[in-house]
Amino acid sequence: MAPSAFSSGFLAWLRRKSGQASSPPLASPAPSSNDSSSHYFADTLPNQRETQHVDRDKLNDDLQYRVAWAQLFLGFTKEDGQVLNAALPLLNPIVSDITNGVYAHLFRWDYTKAPFLKRNVGFEGPLADSLEKLMLDHPQILFRKRFLNTYLRKVFDADYEDPATWVYMDRVGMMHTGRPGFKHRENKTPLHVDLMACTLLLGWVQDVVITAVFTIKEKDLSQKDRMAVLRAFNKVVAIQTDLFQRHYIRDDEEAAFNLAAQRFQDS
Ligand code: HEM
């Protein structure tokens, strides 16, 4: 599909997006009840009397179990995955604009720019030695953009029935906590990005995608399909967010312990 699927002005908006705090309104429709993706849980009917057991330890120890429950909770169905795959040709033309927007946005603050000063895995060229010298067209950033492009395309292209998709998303989360996550990152300089920055960036990308989908012309995407794409994307972002968080905070007790320790230090 040609980029003309987007209303005029959207690409200009996207390029101005860094620094703009717009948030398009989107009602959250009720979740669908026909979950077909879970092998672990029975479908939940609205008038169900029995409660199903969720194994708290297994949520932490078994990734596919965790994702299965997250899918069930959010109402992420096989159809949601298919809807995202079908939307790829519409979103494909703006993936590199979104990537450019992400880096322009992260480069606005030292806090989110600093991680890009360090040598990135697989990049062999010269590094910038200060934040001021690190520009958006630096070879390491151009190199990094290729990875982000791949990730963004994957969100729309992935086979959500394949457990490997969730393993990949889980490793993307893990690799920002200092653990390698991927084989190609083993024995390389660890990456540490705070959870807050990751969560906010997911929200920022979500905002851009919501806006993009709203500006696609009616003849290219009906209202019904538009709603389906946004709902499916929203659910994937929620699961990806969880697959970041679980590597930072193992469970609520650990969070409570950390908070108590912090308060003790501050007192
Ligand atoms: C929306 C949340 C985020 C997603 C989905 C994401 C995704 C990714 C992916 C797919 C990679 C490449 C993985 C590979 O090596 O195969 C990567 C690398 C990287 N990310 Fe993120 N990221 C996110 C947030 C952030 C934030 C907020 C920062 C910095 C403030 C950041 C900094 C980096 C850096 C510096 C690398 C390169 C590390 C290296 O190769 O040594 N990421 N990220």
TrEMBL record:
<feature type="compositionally biased region" description="Low complexity">
    <location>
        <begin position="21"/>
        <end position="38"/>
    </location>
</feature>
<dbReference type="InterPro" id="IPR044398">
    <property type="entry name" value="Globin-sensor_dom"/>
</dbReference>
<feature type="region of interest" description="Disordered">
    <location>
        <begin position="20"/>
        <end position="42"/>
    </location>
</feature>
<protein>
    <submittedName>
        <fullName>Protoglobin-domain-containing protein</fullName>
    </submittedName>
</protein>
<feature type="domain" description="Globin-sensor">
    <location>
        <begin position="65"/>
        <end position="254"/>
    </location>
</feature>
<dbReference type="GO" id="GO:0020037">
    <property type="term" value="F:heme binding"/>
</dbReference>
<dbReference type="InterPro" id="IPR012292">
    <property type="entry name" value="Globin/Proto"/>
</dbReference>
<dbReference type="GO" id="GO:0019825">
    <property type="term" value="F:oxygen binding"/>
</dbReference>
<dbReference type="Pfam" id="PF11563">
    <property type="entry name" value="Protoglobin"/>
</dbReference>
